[in-house]
Amino acid sequence: MGSRGRGAQASASLLLFSLGLVLICFTSGVVAGQKTWCVAKPSASNEVLSLNLNYACSQVSCAVIQKGGPCYYPDNLVSRAAVAMNLYYAANGRHAWNCYFNNSALVVQSDPSYGSCTYY
Q: Among 18, 20, 32, 106, which is least packed, fewest CB within 10 Å?
């Protein structure tokens, strides 16, 4: 193989290695050493958010979003679903696939905690 073939092979190997690193970063729940959280897309329909909320709370304790809990307010579906979806995401290893929710959620790098409501 000529030097041109070796150069192309080295470039292809470097590209595959780089893609592998990107995949590891985005599927591990930690992006470049930073913690991630799962939140509901504000554009998600109420129907999908209700399904997500019910599913997540059937898998993990959602006591924090019950009346009197630290994440009860604001009392709206997007907020409650986001907390529940994040609880599920955190309990299942913070993998991107645990934050899919039928394409109605996002993995974010900014802590969405507010007031006394802590996102874990």
A: 32
